[in-house]
Design a protein that fits this description.
Elements (H helix, E strand, L loop, with lengths): L1 E3 L16 H20 L5 H17 L9 H13 L4 E3 L13
Parallel strand pairs: 1-2
Helix pairs in contact: 1-2
């Protein structure tokens, strides 16, 4: 069973309030691959430069923060899950009374 939690409750658990460990690993690996490609492939043309910079640009795009989602990677994951899986999300807030567990 999945619970839908308000976004601001988990923000303090993130690095700088935006990134988690996987996001930083993804971004650093993209930068590392770009540096290796810059050393291996001499960017003498615009196409070679685009190929060299592609990993850093793609990883930077994926971890770029956007409103209402932590980053683009999470948004793309949620869109994919929405169209491929049938789930029922239950919202459980910080209410004094639980309307389903309380007998009247």
């Amino acid at each position: 069973m999945d619970f839908l939690i308000p976004a601001n409750s988990k923000k303090s658990m993130l690095i700088l309030g935006v990134f988690d460990i996987f996001d930083l690993i993804l971004f650093v690996s993209g930068i590392g691959i770009t540096l290796i490609l810059l050393l291996v492939i001499n960017p003498s043309s615009l196409l070679a430069a685009a190929i060299d910079l592609a990993p850093a640009l793609i990883c930077g795009f994926l971890v770029f923060p956007i409103p209402n989602y932590r980053n683009v990677r999470i948004l793309l994951t949620e869109v994919y899950r929405f169209y491929t899986q049938r789930e029922r999300f239950i919202w459980k807030g910080w209410c004094v009374k639980d309307e389903y567990g309380e007998k009247r």
